[in-house]
């Protein structure tokens, strides 16, 4: 009997779906999946049945959300591609506990909207929010633009509902803010990239809506100045500092041309920073202007209208799109102690330019979290030919990262493309423990095999 | 050769210490330890040597910090009592990353002071802060008074340094705020109550100092009103709400008499709430007064001076001491969804009074986190005789907790006294995974055996 017929015995017709390019091609068109079957279950019971069947028959299962990952964690060449898009309900919004229970397939933007309609904020915000899904955000411990104030996805998850590889259900969708009953298993699943089970729903933290904002674009000569601005802004405005984005001159000019928007300042480096206040605060703009002037950051422009704020953010958000004209990039999603960023950026650029003549570097990111997107482009190399140089370029970049105690994966995960680097940031004892946990939960290695662990 | 002599071969004389009552008696004088030897190592190398030796020789090791735990997690009747008090250095304060690296034996209050001297806040605050140690706070995932704004200890730990049962060192004392490189093992150790390894140091988050405070004592007729006050205060003041403590009339009156301080209000229930602002905000008191008046909470007193604030907090903090005159209490450290607290308190009191004639209930705690201290006293029962009724009383209390999806251990841990309740809040699959993790790291079960896991 064909696999299709076996699944049809216990799934409805609508749960076995056509394999479309949108499901099979990864975000960067680098990998193409070729699963034996694509399933889109519409109930917990169906997920449990699928997992029980696959567990018994040793069939590999690759879970998939919005398919926006950048590290190939949902690429598969066999077994079941398990798409969670039908798990798209907001199950509950609880104002007393400031929490919201949503299913894994809810699109991030829809979760944000549901919170807003209830008069609350769900703060996770990132470039792909219009299509990425909550389950994937949890599986990769997504970060984005508001981590400085609200933390990464890990910090926003209170409870999880998970189907284990053997089909068993673990459900802790309570809104308890304090709970210390044995080893914290929730955090094992967060960031596990689909290798330990299927996340089907989560209880998430909600926050008060910010009522006032102040946004500034600051031109600075070097990263040392950016770090000084960050430290002083945090010491003064504390949690009101919500975003602190670093943009190199090259990245800013690319985006300005692409967006057809003028740059607010002309300098070697740019900072886009935003304060938010959860109480009405008319004077926030004035306070920020005064602060920047007093601290000597005089090459600053404050957004004086919603339109100006939108323009500033468009310049930041369009960097990714604007760099495409440079060809295929070798991307790095890195984090380093903030005090080391300046040194890293200088050393790494020097090393890369020495080893790869004419290399172009688009450097930008969430300096407030010490996290950078560090994308490199080789001249005159067409499309995916660039990947031939990936290992060499990574070697140079990651050597510099490791020298300053940083990490090779800040907010995109490991997937398949960074597996060989895991043992540079984790000790053998840690990797052995990870493998032991994986082996216990997934003895037949059916759950997203080949991802994350070397 | 005696154990003493074996350790003397590789430890200095000052690292093998006398067993004093302060080390052997637990906080509540309920348990007395009788280890074979008490060690107080003064370096990582010594901890590694001790663990290697104990691993090879299958000697049990019980780690101990400030010995302020309430669940018996550091009680032992054999092997090594490993006291971490000599690990008392603040290793580093990093203002760019807003972090601080401290050793496990640093007393919480000293960590708070070191942060304050650097112009920052380390927000963990709890009754035993003058003697409890950071290592113990991490091992138990301590909570306390500021969880509402800053989270529990779990939320405050960025990096850990751990010696594993076999003596291996895992060190991640970096200040990275984003790092997604495989399963999150840090969170396994946080809250593991010394059963997986020895925490020797941690990198902790720092925050801006609050510059203004507003403190109010509010009298309310019932818990429903308290929940309404909480929800509206959070919706309005958001993260500025730092503490929200519930106190029953009985608890308040006990503390008032003990403290020789008048109660600010006379009502069935009391709320002590505090707002903090990280920017100067002269009008915070006025805003809070206006808010309480507008929302109809007219039985309110605002602290008009530092002295008045200290009095209000003394009334809250003296509850534990003031209840001692009632005899030995059967204590419960519970958390429930906030929307269910009113129902729980009513039902549970009714059940207890029905089953235990004349029982007295001292109910207070961190309502803002859904967490309550729920202490019960039987009349005419002297001292530890009360423990004869512990299982029965727990049965009644926990049945009510579980009926509303709550937890039997909010912020004190499981230790030995709650082990038999673990399988009521965790599924068999979860407990099996916990045991598998324990077995992998500690195959000879030498690391704080008999604690936490059933």
Please describe what this structure looks like:
2 copies of one chain form a homodimer. Chain A has 454 residues and is α+β, with helices and mostly antiparallel strands. Chain A has 4 domains: 3-83, Uridine Diphospho-n-acetylenolpyruvylglucosamine Reductase, domain 2; 90-205, Uridine Diphospho-n-acetylenolpyruvylglucosamine Reductase, domain 3, CATH 3.30.465.10; 212-322, Alpha-Beta Plaits; 327-424, Alpha-Beta Plaits. Chain A is built from 17 helices and 18 strands. The first copy, chain A, has helices at 3-8, 21-24, 44-57, 108-117, 134-139, 147-150, 153-156, 186-189, 223-237, 249-259, 284-294, 306-317, 319-322, 341-355, 390-403, 422-425, 428-441; strands at 16-17, 37-39, 61-64, 80-83, 90-94, 99-103, 120-121, 157-163, 169-172, 198-205, 207-208, 212-220, 241-248, 269-277, 300-302, 333-335, 360-366, 371-377. In chain A, the strands form 4 sheets. A 7-stranded antiparallel sheet of chain A has the order 15-12-14-13-17-18-16, with helices on both faces. A 5-stranded antiparallel sheet of chain A has the order 5-6-10-8-9. In chain A, a hairpin with a 4-residue loop joins strand 17 (360-366) and strand 18. In chain A, helix 10 crosses helix 12. The radius of gyration of chain A is 23 Å and the shape is globular. The relative contact order of chain A is 0.12. The model of chain A has no long low-confidence stretch (mean pLDDT 96). Chains A and B meet through helix 8, strand 11, helix 9 and helix 17 of A and helix 8, strand 11, helix 9 and helix 17 of B.
């Amino acid at each position: 009997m064909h696999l299709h017929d076996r699944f049809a015995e216990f799934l409805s017709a609508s749960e076995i779906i056509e394999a479309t390019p949108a499901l099979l091609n990864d975000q960067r068109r680098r990998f193409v999946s070729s699963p034996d079957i694509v399933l889109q279950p519409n109930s917990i019971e169906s997920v449990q049945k699928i997992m029980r069947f696959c567990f018994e028959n040793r069939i590999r299962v690759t879970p998939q959300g919005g398919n926006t990952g950048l590290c190939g964690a949902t690429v598969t060449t066999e077994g079941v591609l398990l798409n969670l898009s039908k798990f798209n309900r907001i199950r509950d919004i609880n104002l007393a506990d400031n929490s919201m229970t949503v299913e894994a397939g809810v699109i991030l933007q829809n979760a944000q909207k549901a919170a807003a309609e209830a008069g609350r904020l769900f703060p996770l915000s990132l470039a792909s929010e219009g299509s990425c899904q909550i389950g994937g955000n949890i599986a990769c411990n997504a970060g984005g633009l508001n981590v400085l104030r609200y933390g990464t996805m890990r910090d926003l998850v209170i409870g999880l509902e998970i189907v284990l590889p053997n089909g068993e259900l673990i459900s802790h969708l309570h809104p308890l803010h304090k709970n210390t009953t044995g080893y914290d298993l929730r955090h094992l699943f967060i960031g596990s990239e689909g290798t330990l089970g299927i996340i089907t729903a989560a209880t998430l933290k909600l926050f008060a809506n910010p009522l006032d904002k102040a946004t500034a674009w600051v031109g600075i000569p070097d990263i040392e100045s950016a770090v000084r601005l960050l430290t002083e802004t945090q010491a003064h405005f504390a949690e009101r500092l919500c975003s602190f984005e670093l943009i190199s001159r090259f990245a800013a000019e690319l985006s300005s041309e692409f967006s057809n928007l003028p740059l607010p300042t002309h300098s070697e480096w740019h900072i886009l920073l935003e304060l938010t206040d959860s109480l009405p605060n008319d004077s926030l703009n004035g306070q920020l202007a005064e602060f920047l002037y007093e601290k000597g950051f005089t090459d600053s422009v404050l957004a004086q209208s919603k339109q100006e704020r939108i323009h500033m953010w468009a310049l930041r958000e369009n960097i990714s799109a604007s760099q495409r004209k440079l060809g295929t990039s070798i991307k790095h999603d890195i984090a380093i102690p903030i005090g080391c960023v300046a040194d890293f950026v200088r050393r790494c650029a020097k090393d890369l330019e020495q080893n790869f003549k004419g290399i172009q570097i688009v450097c930008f990111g969430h300096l407030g979290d010490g996290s950078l997107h560090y994308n490199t482009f080789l001249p005159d190399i067409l499309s995916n030919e660039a990947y031939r140089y990936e290992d060499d370029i990574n070697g140079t970049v990651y050597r510099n990262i490791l020298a300053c105690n940083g990490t090779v994966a800040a907010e995109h995960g490991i997937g398949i493309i960074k597996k060989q680097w895991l043992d540079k940031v984790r000790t053998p004892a840690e990797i052995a423990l990870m493998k032991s946990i994986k082996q216990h939960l997934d003895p037949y290695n059916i759950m997203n095999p080949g991802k994350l662990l070397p």
